[in-house]
Amino acid sequence: MNELNVKQQTFVDEYIKSGNAYQSAIKAGYSEKYAKARSHKLLENVGIKSAIDKRMEELKKEAIADQDEILRYLTSVIRGEITDQELIPIQVGRGEMEVEELEKRSDTNARTKAAELLGKRYRMWTDKVEAEVITPTFINDVPADD
Question: What is the annotated signal peptide range for this record (predicted)?
Fold first, then answer.
């Protein structure tokens, strides 16, 4: 695949921000006449399309938590490593209040819920039942009528 030139790379960056091919072409340094008539052609360029697709996939990965991240988060909640902030109003004078910030560990309910979710993930709460199935055997020993 060919490397993109500076204008094309700028077009890719601007297009990812705005989704507007015309405006992106102008910001990338293409003339207004070219942008008006042919900006859609830039999106058909294999190199540009590939660069846009690749960057969009990277952005998606950055924005969405994967399985590992979720499992690490649940584990840190269980261990009390995640803290919540609570604002506590304190009266300092007549009609005057200050707010104190207090950090506290996740409450027991949150930790229990995280433990439940992790337990479900690892199928710790699944009861194993052994069942023996006896299949009846049918014997056709009835004499046929002549």
Answer: none
